[in-house]
Design brief:
Layout: E1 6-10, H1 19-34, E2 38-41, H2 47-58, E3 63-68, H3 72-75, E4 83-87, H4 90-100, E5 103-106, H5 111-125, E6 133-136, H6 143-154, E7 166-169, H7 172-181
Parallel strand pairs: 1-2, 1-5, 2-3, 3-4, 5-6, 6-7
């Protein structure tokens, strides 16, 4: 069973989302901090990003932000973090977040969240790292995405053995249990040798 020192959280930066998502983000940050797990996230203080950081900080947790210089004005970097890394690109942001983390959790979000989520999954699939990826499925937000992934498996675009690379749960306890125990297939077991 895996243990986690730090988990990267991917989530939306919009303040326009329903307050239930903001409360879920704050609860996630608080829940990780209460378990002694540090939070790595996008470094902003707006939207769900800010709520995750605030929840963890209020519970005495460690929070590490990673924000591109170009987005500092848009996402308004959080000033109370344990440490904030300013990087030069979105690519560098994702690489730094992966480097700092033992696992990944996605909360509801838009294009950026989905980009981060699927890059982390792809890196796990290809063994650039062996770190589990999960969705905290607040109010069924990811139900249609999960159905689409099953469709992709059925159509042969995702191997059946890779279907569990994205795990989902409605509660943090269940999600952490899945992340701690999911079997991550090693690349050598599925790449066809010449």
């Amino acid at each position: 069973m895996r243990t986690f020192r730090r988990i990267a959280v991917f989530c939306g930066s919009s303040d326009a989302a329903d307050p239930v998502y903001h409360e879920a983000a704050r609860a996630l940050g608080r829940g990780l901090a209460e378990r002694g797990i540090g939070v790595v996230y996008g470094g902003g203080r707006v939207g769900l990003m800010g709520a995750v950081a605030d929840g963890a900080l209020e519970a005495g947790g460690q929070v590490y932000g990673v924000i591109p210089e170009k987005l500092r004005a848009l996402e308004v970097d959080h000033l109370q973090l344990t440490e904030c890394f300013v990087v030069d690109s979105m690519h560098a942001r994702k690489a730094m977040m992966a480097h700092l983390s033992d696992a990944f959790i996605a909360l509801p979000g838009g294009y950026g969240t989905l980009d981060e989520l699927f890059e982390a999954v792809t890196w796990t699939q290809l063994n650039y790292h062996l770190k589990p990826v999960g969705l905290l499925n607040v109010r069924g937000y990811f139900d249609q995405l999960l159905a689409f992934l099953q469709h992709a498996v059925g159509e042969g675009f995702i191997r059946q053995m890779h279907a569990p690379l994205v795990t989902a749960a409605e509660s943090l306890d269940d999600l952490l249990q899945h992340l701690a125990t999911v079997d991550l297939p090693e690349i050598g077991r599925w790449i066809e040798k010449p």
